[in-house]
Amino acid sequence: MTFPLDHLIFTPHDVDLARSPLAGRIDAETIVLGAFNPGMTRLANGNLLLMVRVAEALKEPIVEGHVRAVRWDAGSCVLDPWPLALVDTADPRKFMMRGGGWRVMALTSLSWLLPVELDPEGRRVEAVHYDRAIVPAASWQCYGVEDARISRVGDRFLMTTCSVSPERHSTTLYTSDDAVDWTLEGIVLDHQNKDMLIFEGLIDGKYWAQTRPLGDLYFAYPPDSEWRAGPSINLASSPDALHWKPSEHPGIRPHSATTATARMGGGSPPIATDKGWLTLWHGVEPHGVVGIYRTYWTILARDAPWRTVAFGETPLIEPAPALTEPLRDLMYLDSVVFTTGIADGGDYWIVASGEADLACRITHVPKRLIG
């Protein structure tokens, strides 16, 4: 499918590491492994704001028979060395510990959030605000802050992120009155509950959110069920956006008739339309190491967000190898588009995505294609 505008707006080449919040805090040369998965919202001046995840990695993670993990500690960066005999280093983003009875990993990069201001249509970068970068602020963020999603509810901006540490892999909340100055409110969802998307509006006076708890075990549906067991998009509600109660209604689940959405998770925060809540989400088809990530759409009932009003059976946005071809020398995986933001552009939706865990992609999706 072709779109009126579909381009990479921000890539690793656009990050100035001399202005990184890690500059001078880490005793090793670093590179940008990826500048991707941007949360997006519209500022008071009409411009778009991306909160770009910058994965800053060691240029040489392996030194003298050890691979080093990057960890934030009290405003500084620590390099933790692990003997190569104890780990699997096949993936440049991380390394896995051998043995132990369950999966344990460490990261060769540390992620922080970089505010990037775009023009109102997402065609060009207007400013990059290094002075307002968001870095870890607590022990439960020591491996980084990842994958922002921004929702505006009334006059308040709510930004959820994944905070990564040995303590827990949690969802954290930042709030702001202007999407410029952010306050860290703390942990709102506990271990391995990812892709939290807060609806851009209240339902019966409550905040609602999509969540995606992960696990290593799922119970089977009956053999003739229309659903497939596995990760699904769940729902939760809250009186204050801080304390969340899971909904007893199921959310969006994988269909048994296809493997294209065998694994799924939230993409852009649900936005109100005349037909209901429009939500974009990713479906993952098992393939290779990480699978093929595509973006799908669903419209949910305004007063009952667990009820589907309409949905698209075919992908709305697919990975675009032609866009990343100029960055081929930087790529470490492909077949991934990971949608993370949406804004109204009039006759089209402005959609922000991460492409190949590498760069930020802006796509103008005509509204006639949805609903």
From TrEMBL:
It comes from the Bacteria. InterPro entries: Glyco_hydro_beta-prop_sf (IPR023296), Mannoside_phosphorylase (IPR007184). SUPFAM superfamilies: Arabinanase/levansucrase/invertase (SSF75005). GO terms for molecular function: glycosyltransferase activity; hydrolase activity, acting on glycosyl bonds. It holds the Pfam family Glyco_hydro_130. The keyword Hydrolase applies. The keyword Glycosyltransferase applies. Keywords: Glycosidase, Glycosyltransferase, Hydrolase, Transferase. Belongs to the glycosyl hydrolase 130 family. This is Glycosidase.
